[in-house]
Design goal:
This protein is mainly beta and 136 residues long. The protein has one helix at 117-135, and strands at 14-20, 25-37, 43-49, 64-68, 74-78, 86-89, 93-97, 103-107.
């Protein structure tokens, strides 16, 4: 990571608000924010609390949308992960109903079975259709 900061200003008194989902609690921190470029050219944003203490917030890792405005206001909203639990598991495929209202049929085939693709797809798709018809 390059130590060259293209955003030279550190924000000593910037108050950052973090909403904790399960407890629905807002925590305000006094922190410094540093923004630098990595070797690959990506922006690295770090929030460094003035008084760090273990257990203050629950650690997380997740995808989301970050926004850094010209006045140095920084917002991050985590993207809600839509989990799909397979409804039907077959040898080479799964059928799942998503919370987003989309049904998914996923077919997996090892490369050494490519010559059997048409037969296996037909057989397992028929089983998935029978399952869906019985489910309704």
């Amino acid at each position: 990571m390059s130590t060259t900061n293209y955003f030279a200003q550190t924000l000593k008194t910037r108050k950052l608000s973090t909403t904790m989902k399960k407890e629905n609690k807002t925590l305000t921190l006094t922190a410094q924010m540093t923004i630098s470029k990595t070797e690959s050219g990506m922006d690295l944003v770090q929030v460094l609390p003035d008084n760090p203490c273990e257990g203050l917030v629950k650690p997380f890792s997740g995808a989301g949308k970050a926004q850094l405005q010209g006045n140095a206001t920084f917002d991050f909203v985590r993207k809600r992960r839509i989990r799909r639990k397979p409804e039907l598991k077959l040898l080479h495929s799964t059928l799942s109903y998503g919370q987003d209202g989309i049904d998914r049929y996923i077919f997996y085939l090892p490369s050494e079975q490519r010559d059997e693709f048409a037969r296996l797809l037909t057989e397992e798709a028929e089983m998935a259709v029978i399952y869906m018809n019985n489910k309704q």
